[in-house]
Amino acid sequence: MNATAGQPVVEVHDLGVGYRNRPVLRHLDFSCHGGQFVSLLGPNGAGKTTLLRTLSRHLAPQAGGIRVQGRPLESLAALELARIMAVVLTDKIAPPLFTVFEFVALGRYPHTDYLGRLGSGDRVAVTSSLAAVHALDLAHRPFADLSDGEQQKVLMARALAQEPQVLLLDEPTIHLDLKHRVEVMAILRDLCRTKGITVIASLHDVDVAAKVSDRVALIRDGGLAAWGPPETVLSRQAVTDLYDFDKAEFNRHLGGIELRGAGDRGRAFVVGGMGSGALVYRMLTKRGFALATGVVHENDLDCFVARSLGAECVAVAPMEHINGAAADRAKELLAGCDLVVDCGFPVGPVNEANLALLQAALELGKTVLSLRGDLPPGLRPTGGQRYLACADAARLLEALETLTPRHAVPIHGEESPCTP
């Protein structure tokens, strides 16, 4: 099933695609090799489906050319192309009276005689295709009775029954629940690795594409904005430009998208570090708080999450002891915040200076919500400030709900879910 080493399975040169006199994409150049997972990413209407329909010969190219296994696409006979390429589009299919096995067996048409009779080898191929998509248990059920997720797996099985070297899919996870989305993507990834099939799929989930793809094509404004490995192509700016993000940001280190909040409920300073703050940042952002945080290290998970959420983030170099300049900057930000949250970060030599931030918050009369439990050694609450020790994230959430929209002051101090 594997393509010749070094030889592209699919090559596109100066390709133009569209409908009649309406061009959709122009000047496309890329090549796909055996066993690669290739994701087509872009906003709705960008031309991903049009490209797939052109690659599958449902549409004729408007310009340029496509080569499959080194041969012009138009030179391949229909049955010959069907032995090389299988297609799963988004068109709804509801064949009456077909069992799953019978439906998948339709994929054997490039290999059967002119009457479409199945031999023992064909039956083995159908069974193997169902097994590959974890659907053997569905073999005798009516196709029309299946759920959307089950139908999608069976559609892939029918395509696999063709024994293709290239599999084209248009939004293979659309309308699927989370379980089936994950299962379908895992199946496709495994087909690339175990059978050497080249998968070319249009996707909407950029975070999924980042995790499964060998190559990604960013499609926008009538052309190919970028092409290459996701590790180099899917930068913060590239994804922001691709989808016109306003209140979201892709982070390649996290492999996903973070959603920024409105920041209309006040401003919170988070004392985190060593991965302790990521959950709290998201918790606060969802509830309308603008964020500031520090002092964290630049290679810390907290730093990546905070910056993706638009927080003002005071950071120092990896493994560096928190210095006076960074601590002073953090204190300035803290002084302008309505609320301080202590994430209960583990204290060590490189970050023990962050305890001074908590003391500064207390001295400034700030309300401090803490996941640490007891007051850390050396901290001295004075006057009327509030240090509320929360047992866990659920209690912290309850405490946040008691705050006024614009000021981080408990409405009912004695009824706070955290312990003063």
Name the descriptors.
420 residues; alpha/beta; Rossmann fold; 2 domains; six-stranded mixed β-sheet; six-stranded parallel β-sheet; 14 helices; 18 strands
Overall number of structural domains: 2
Going by CATH, what is the homologous superfamily of the largest domain?
P-loop containing nucleotide triphosphate hydrolases
Termini separation comes to 67 Å
CATH class of the largest domain: Alpha Beta
CATH architecture of the largest domain: 3-Layer(aba) Sandwich
* Tally of helical segments: 14
Helix content: 25-40%
Q: Over the alpha carbons, how many angstroms does the gyration radius reach?
A: 28 Å
Structural class: alpha/beta
Shape: elongated
Low-confidence stretches: 405-416
Mean of pLDDT: 87
Task: State the oligomer.
Answer: single chain
Main pleated sheet: 6 strands, mixed
Give the neighbour order of strands across the main sheet.
6-7-8-3-9-10
- CATH topology type of the largest domain: Rossmann fold
Number of extended strands: 18
Structure commentary:
Strand 9 (215-220) and strand 10 (223-228) form a beta hairpin. This protein has two domains: 10-251, 3-Layer(aba) Sandwich (Rossmann fold), CATH 3.40.50; 260-415, Rossmann fold, CATH 3.40.50. The longest helix has 18 residues, at 178-195. The protein is an alpha/beta fold and 420 residues long. Helix content is 32%, strand content 23%. The model is unreliable at 405-416 (pLDDT under 50). A six-stranded mixed β-sheet has the order 6-7-8-3-9-10, sandwiched between helices. The chain has 14 helices and 18 strands. The chain has helices spanning 48-55, 78-84, 100-105, 120-132, 148-161, 178-195, 206-212, 230-233, 236-243, 278-286, 301-308, 324-335, 354-363, 393-401, and strands at 10-19, 22-32, 37-41, 63-68, 71-72, 85-88, 166-170, 198-203, 215-220, 223-228, 248-251, 256-259, 267-271, 290-297, 312-316, 339-342, 367-370, 387-389.
